[in-house]
Specification:
With 164 residues, the chain is α/β, with parallel strands linked by helices. It is 26% helix and 39% strand. Strands 1, 3, 4, 6, 7, 9, 10, 12, 14 and 16 form a 10-stranded parallel β-sheet that branches.
Length: 164
Amino acid sequence: MFGNKKDTTVDPALEQVGTIIGPGAVLDGPLTTKDSTRIDGTVKGNVTISGALIVGQEGKITGTVSAMNAYIAGEVTGNISAPQGKVEISDTGKVIGNVSCKGIVIDENAVFSGQCDMTGIEKNSAEVAKERAAADKEASEDKPSEEKKEEGTEDKKEENKENK
């Protein structure tokens, strides 16, 4: 009844994996692909993926990673760059290095040792708060002067009626 239906939807990035580095495979040197890639083996070198990168639980990368989106369930030792996308580190994932991305998800029990730089954010929350406060202050200052102007015009109208 309740909870019997399982979520069978699959992320489109997972369906369209064009390159797979299987378990036990070791690649020495850089890896560059144009399509989404899943790594369950070991890559010793820089990884550049035009699509999504999926590092399985047994996958290991030692080198700089650049991808549209990255899902890490294995281990990455090196910086990860996904300036237009998202980096997700699952509960079995381990990232030792800096991450630069638009969005990040770090599951409970995941390991992340490094710095995260969020790209695509024009203003931080402190700047937004300052702008809102300034706008609120201006609005509250403008109200009394507008009320005074309205009162002044009403007084002048009454004077004009009395003079006629």
